[in-house]
Write a structure and sequence with these properties.
globular; binds zinc ion; five-stranded mixed beta sheet; alpha/beta; binds 5'-O-[(R)-(carboxyoxy)(hydroxy)phosphoryl]adenosine
Length: 350
């Protein structure tokens, strides 16, 4: 890697403001995160306009705190990496504008980062880190993808969700169960309290060849189970909710595990990397760890969900692999709310 290259990473793609400092020699120097859960909780989901405003409010104090904690000064920075997409347009613009304005003032390069590449590379910040090639299961709120990663920017999409992403399915099922936002962790907590004995939900698309997923049908099973367990007063007792949550989680975890095993067999790559918000799910981690003859890697819990560290690290990797000249062009503030990770294979910067 480039010697002693220090990158500030800025993440504002959705409902988390994350900033971090990554050094090519010393690794992660520090990071700060603000989750907007309290802002969106009463709406039961992310409100894009409120997300943008909150990023504006939080980004400067977080950077100040990061520099204070690490003893860093702006003059020490070599580049600024920011999430350029995919994500919410307004939210992305906050991070992009901030990063570009600061980099312009400091006369240093900006490195636009693909949010999913940030997730994909996050496990490489850990020790031991996975060697290439590996199969990545990227499971977040917006994406469920299996990717053969044969090297840096050598990504082959093996399969993906045809409808709801795994995280989205968790969030929607949680909402139906009346659980607080963010739904995924709340549903997982409830599910982990019981053994799933009462309901069996289907494992979607496991009978079909291939590596695509479909989780939207699980909503119907969740709805039917909720209706079947209503008492005369219309309420669903907590122990019934726990059974429904457990059946739901088991179905998602087993489906993901079956497809991961298939991806490993199909590619002949016995190394699996789990990343994205749903990688924080304990049942999923346990199930993938139990796969025979497969080495399994994942980031520490705090770097599964959105964070600035993965963006700083992905920025550092991009600069290292693509070289200084790739980032010398004049910059415009552009973001890509929709952006396929496969586009990166062409070594496009944005
Ligand atoms: O990667 P991420 O922070 O944001 C996106 O890029 O989408 O992922 C957020 C998603 C949400 O859908 C959230 O409910 C889910 O990850 N999630 C979980 C858990 N923790 C976060 N889902 C299941 N179990 C968890 N423990
Ligand atoms: Zn994410």
């Amino acid at each position: 890697m480039v010697i002693d290259f220090k990158v500030l990473g800025v993440e504002t793609s959705c409902d988390e403001t994350g900033v971090a400092l990554y050094c090519s020699n010393k690794g992660l120097l520090g990071h700060q995160l603000h989750s907007q859960f309290a802002t969106h909780a009463r709406f039961g989901g992310v409100v894009p306009e409120l997300a943008s405003r909150d990023h504006v409010r939080k980004i400067t104090p977080l950077i100040k705190q990061l520099f204070k904690n690490t003893g860093f000064e702006f003059s020490h920075l070599d580049a600024i990496a920011y999430t350029a997409g995919p994500g919410l347009m307004g939210a992305l613009f906050v991070g992009a504008s901030f990063a570009i304005a600061l980099a312009e003032a400091l006369n240093i390069p900006t490195i636009p980062v693909h949010h999913l590449e940030g997730h994909l590379l996050a496990p490489l910040m850990e020790i031991p880190k996975p060697a290439y090639p590996f199969v990545a299961l990227l499971v977040s709120g917006g994406h469920t993808q299996l990717i053969a990663v044969r090297g840096y920017r050598q990504y082959e999409l093996l399969g993906e969700s045809l409808d709801d992403a795994a995280g989205e399915a968790f969030d929607k099922a949680a909402k139906m169960l009346g659980l607080p936002y963010p739904g995924g962790p709340a549903l997982a907590n409830l599910a982990d309290q019981v053994q799933a004995t009462q309901y069996v939900f289907p494992r979607p698309m496991i009978g079909k060849p291939g590596l695509d997923f479909s989780f939207s049908g699980l909503k119907t099973f969740t709805r039917n189970a909720i209706d079947a367990s209503r008492q005369s007063d219309g309420q669903v007792p907590m122990k019934e909710k726990a059974q429904i949550a457990a059946a739901f989680q088991k179905a998602v975890v087993e489906t993901l595990t079956i497809k991961c095993r298939r991806a490993v067999e199909q590619t002949g790559i016995p190394r699996l990397v789990l990343s994205g918000g749903v990688a924080a799910n304990n049942a999923l981690r346990k199930s993938l760890m139990a796969l025979k003859n497969v080495e399994c890697f994942y980031p520490r819990m705090e770097f599964c969900t959105d964070n600035g560290a993965m963006i700083a690290y992905a920025g550092c990797c991009a600069y290292d692999h693509l070289g200084e000249e790739a980032f010398e062009e004049g910059r415009s503030i552009a973001v890509k709310p929709r952006w396929s990770i496969e586009d990166l294979v062409k070594n496009e910067i944005t």
